[in-house]
Design a protein that fits this description.
Length: about 400
């Protein structure tokens, strides 16, 4: 009896297909798609209102102080929630905590319709920040749970696309809609976006780390294998806070839409490079990309020292976007690879803390620095800061 007789073509094809799937399993599954829906809804709600709420605050209390306070309240409460979410998820489960985070992010937006005082606006911003901090930590941890480890990098890259697209589209859309239709429609849209995410939560698996096995954020900070990538990533997020905040201010008068175009280029390139880094990392390992990502980030910021040249600005934003996207994917992949499932919540919290705190510290520090040195020198010094992060990155490779 021949092999062909015992193994018909259809069976042989099926066997080959199974072998391929063992080596390279599928990324997408129904639970992962539902996580993406929830995270997309949260990101849309966050970015729709991110610039609109400060504008609304200035309509209530003229001047820029109120606008700055709303963003400050939002980000302070976001960081506070990120510190506590890993423990909450271990106690109550990811599904319940994610639903709570989405509701805290979305429903208070409706209260802004009636908010007629600065304390009320600040209170809403603080509550929404708690919700956003919860959703980003739980969303990242759930993605790590649900993606096959052989394709974790690419899966995290897709997750980056899911949460990155709203930053490109929803941020300007919110400002445009507020200018055309007024503030209430934007607030309602922000609430509805999170309710779409809540509707997807019941379909998620009831995952949770065992409370006794879960590690807190402070313990994660004492773990060198997690701290080194997080520290390297924080340098790029500081640079991102500088670029996003000060590029429009640093450009010469008469630059037209150059700032908007540069920010768009940076966001698009960062999203694509984050996905590409995941695919490359799955095949060759993510560790080799961290230093190139840091070098590209530093080179991109350094190019911004030539703010009088539109070509240098656009090239610099593209190069910085490429490095920033690579650093996002690589650091998160490395940290998840070095943690057990009981530590996924802590890894997500550490990474998001590096992101959000870096944005705030970078913007605040650059403002003080630029006041003394001017923008070109301040951009060059920021590039040097990112370049200094190459040292812990190299030490991390040597230690591993």
């Amino acid at each position: 009896m021949t092999v062909a007789a015992t193994n018909p073509p259809a069976q042989r094809f099926s066997a080959r297909q199974q072998q391929v799937e063992v080596v390279r399993p599928r990324i997408m599954s129904r639970p992962l798609a539902l996580v993406f829906v929830s995270c997309f809804g949260a990101a849309v709600s966050f970015y729709l209102l991110l610039s609109v709420v400060p504008l609304y605050a200035t309509s209530v209390v003229p001047g820029g102080i109120g606008a700055g306070l709303t963003t400050g309240a939002l980000m302070v409460s976001t960081v506070a929630a990120e510190l506590a979410t890993a423990r909450l998820a271990a106690r109550f489960g990811y599904r319940s905590v994610l639903a709570a985070g989405l509701l805290l992010l979305g429903l208070p937006a409706l209260a802004l319709i009636r908010a007629a005082s600065m304390p009320a606006i600040l209170a809403v911003s603080a509550v929404r920040g708690l919700g956003f901090g919860i959703t980003v930590v739980v969303g990242g941890a759930l993605v790590a749970w649900l993606i096959p480890h052989q394709r974790r990098g690419e899966g995290l890259g897709l997750y980056g696309v899911v949460v990155g697209v709203p930053s490109v589209a929803a941020l300007p859309l919110g400002v445009w809609l507020a200018g055309r239709a007024g503030y209430p429609p934007v607030f309602v849209a922000g609430a509805l976006a999170t309710l779409v995410g809540v509707a997807a939560v019941p379909g998620l698996p009831a995952l949770a780390a065992a409370p006794r096995e879960a590690i807190g954020v402070m313990a994660g900070l004492r773990t060198p294998a997690l701290l080194r990538p997080s520290a390297a990533f924080s340098a790029t997020t500081m640079a991102a806070g500088v670029v996003l905040t000060f590029l429009p201010l640093a450009l010469p008068r008469g630059s037209g839409n150059l700032a908007a175009l540069g920010l768009l280029v940076q966001a698009l390139v960062a999203t694509v490079s984050r996905w590409w880094a995941g695919r490359y990392g799955d095949r060759h390992g993510p560790a080799g990309l961290l230093v190139p990502g840091l070098l590209a980030s530093a080179a991109g910021v350094l190019a911004l020292a030539l703010v009088a040249s539109p070509a240098a600005v656009l090239v610099g934003m593209a190069v910085f976007g490429a490095g920033f996207g690579v650093a996002q994917n690589v650091t998160l992949s490395l940290m998840f690879n070095r943690a057990s499932t009981s530590g996924y919540g802590t890894v997500s919290a550490l990474w998001n803390l590096a992101y959000d705190a870096g944005l705030g510290v970078g913007a605040a520090g650059f403002g003080l620095l630029a006041a003394q040195t001017g923008y070109p020198i301040a951009f060059a010094l920021t590039a040097a800061l990112v370049l200094a992060a190459v040292s812990p990155a190299l030490h991390d490779r040597k230690a591993r």
